[in-house]
Amino acid sequence: MTVVIDKLNDINSVIKELFEFVQDSEVTKDDFKEYLSTMGTLNPSPAQMEKLFIPYVFERNLGEPAKSIIELFNESENLSNPDIAKSLLSAQYTIFRIEKVLKNGFELFNITNEKQYTVLSLTKMTNFRGIGLGEFIVARIFKFKDEYFMIGIDNVLPENKIKEAIKYAIIKIVQSPWLVYQDNEEKEQEIKNDIKTMSEKFKEVFKSDEFITTNKFTDTVIGILNGDDDAKDFDFEEAKKPLDEYKFFTIKELNNGYDDFIENSLGGFSSHKETYDVGIIMDEELGLYSIPFYKTFCNIFEVNGRPDIENQKECLNYFLKNDAISDRIIRRVADKYPNFMKKVNHFLGTDYTLDSLISTYKSEFLKRKIYSSTSVLYHSTVFSTSIDIAEEDVMSHKKSEQTNTVQTKKVGRNEPCPCGSGKKYKNCCGKN
Q1: 212 contacts 279 by C-beta, under 8 angstroms
Q2: Are 131 and 142 in contact (CB under 8 A)?
Q3: Within 13 A of 19's CA, how many CA atoms are on the CB side?
Q4: How far apart are CA 191 and CA 18, in angstroms?
Q5: Which class for 361: exposed (0-12), middle (13-18), buried (19 or more C-beta within 10 A)?
């Protein structure tokens, strides 16, 4: 127990040191004051400061290339305990289900990476009085010397709010796909094995590592890669016909909001109202990408130019600022077109090299291995569960509508039920 207390004291000392760094460092002090001002708390109480400080140091990025406050802190000199400071870099921030309340912490199940954790609290357990078994908590944990420690709890959901917990987990995964395999080697190996199999299949089918089509055919192409026998007579020549014109525009179905994301996952690309080009790309290391406007983006850098392409600068910004598009996709296009950087710098009014462009816009991909969202979501149980729930909700809504329709018509008890179930009316919607 003494060893545990010593560790807690050492960690809290480093966090105090981090707090002093934020307030005193020339790099961070003015930004931190601005951050507090933006949050409307120029003179926060100790409790308010704790709530604001932790998100700031873990989530705020400064400079070019962008670095988190934790990274800047680790680069500072005279750290009292560099090992603890380094361990903070691996912190996970997600949603957990409480399996057991301990004297000095919790046993938790991480919903995003499907792993059990025993965590020690850095604050007194009396601060969490009233939080119990089966509830869901949003918290940040990190590993130090084979033990896990928790830095506070930001939110609590009761046990019966499982749909809301799943919703939050999906938002986190969409924003940060690595949460599915972070600190879970077995899950990461599953993803890597699947990528290898998919890569072999892709090259066998397309004789290349990319296939350009439109959103109307994208779902079927991905179905073929997943062994969909119904797609064996698919007309590849029709699918890869070029569009009459290439232009970039905003597609509302592609936003990352949870509700829209799940709805779009059910309907697929083909359900989108507009037609646009999609590059289906197989990266043998990071997985399968389905990238809207990929051909439009490539056409910007054609040797003779494509002045007829609408919104070229907006398209460039979309590719650079979209967190779902990896640095390797940018490098792939740059390798194809020798004039890539010349055009980029022309549009942005900059003087980047390719490496400095990547470090500025795709720094997150340089810090960690980020597999494609498609490859990750295939292996996410919480995502599969959310799809099942969404499908049940849709079917329930349809059946409710159909039942209301049935009630307005006279249907014989032994006739087929109008809802389409195949059962007799008396055994289905007319049962009650």
Answers
A1: yes
A2: no
A3: 13
A4: 36
A5: buried
pLDDT of residue 40: 81
Res 152 pLDDT > 90: no
Please provide the average confidence, as pLDDT, over all residues in the chain: 86
Structure tokens given for 317: 């910004």
Radius of gyration of the chain (CA): 26
Report how far apart the first and last C-alpha atoms of the chain are (Å, whole number).
Answer: 62
- For the chain, how many residues are written? 432
Phi, psi of 79 (to 5 degrees): -70, 135
Alpha carbons 127 and 138: distance in angstroms, whole number: 15
d(CA 329, CA 239): 22
Contacts 24+ apart (CB under 8 A), 190-193: 190/379, 191/287, 191/371, 191/375, 191/376, 191/378, 191/379
Coil vs helix vs strand at 201: helix
Mark 340-353 as b/e (b = at least 16 C-beta within 10 Å).
Answer: bbebbeeeeeeeee
Q: Helical H runs in 246-362?
A: 258-267, 294-299, 312-321, 327-336, 340-348, 354-361
* Sequence-ordered list of residues with C-beta below 8 angstroms from that of 208, at least 6 positions apart, any chain: none
Q: How many CB atoms lie within 10 A of CB 168?
A: 21
Quickly state the pLDDT bin for 390 (edges 50, 70, 90): low
DSSP tag of 417: P
